[in-house]
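Input sequence (210 aa), recorded before submission:
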Amino acid sequence: MTASPERLSPLAGWSDRFAVASGIPQQFAIRETPFVAQIDLRGDAANGDFNARVTAALGFDLPRANTWSGSPDRGALWLGPDEWLVVAQGDDSSTLEQTLRQILRDLHHSVVDLSANRTAIEITGREARLVLAKGMPIDLHAKVFAPSAVAQSLLARTQVIVQCLDDRPTFRLFVRPSFSAYVAEWLLDAAAECAASREFDADRIGARLT
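Predicted structure, token format:
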């Protein structure tokens, strides 16, 4: 019997570098969250029947503009007036796709499995917002981009979907596999800059006190 090939994520070889960068988790930590099921869902948001069926299937309402709903493990991200990205960790994407197709079979809709189209990178800690602000043009202030916020934007000239998961803060970035190594490298460099600036400030304060 031929063994099944090992499934490797786009950033499978980055765990050691991520662990080093996450040495002070309260300040900054990074990891890949691979193999997230991602289903692109389109339909008429003004159709009460459409909304009710999707809510019954997912267990939560579809989100309003520029937000996400559900939980970090199973949620829906708003992408446009009639489009959402349904995401789930640990779920079989084909099962989720078939469930949505079945409950919407007699309504105008589109359901497409995009799980292989992006991988997910999570960054968290007090400096996570500063790291993103170095390369993202949107307003990331905590009062504006708070938990439940989501946006499609550029990070270091690369298209990403950014989701604010909590107020630690934790951000999840959905990025295409072909750009994932570039984005990971950029995030590590930006985090190193933040760490160097923090250490410089600490040394300067220490010098004043001696």
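Checked by second reader. Residues 177-209 form the longest helix (33 residues).
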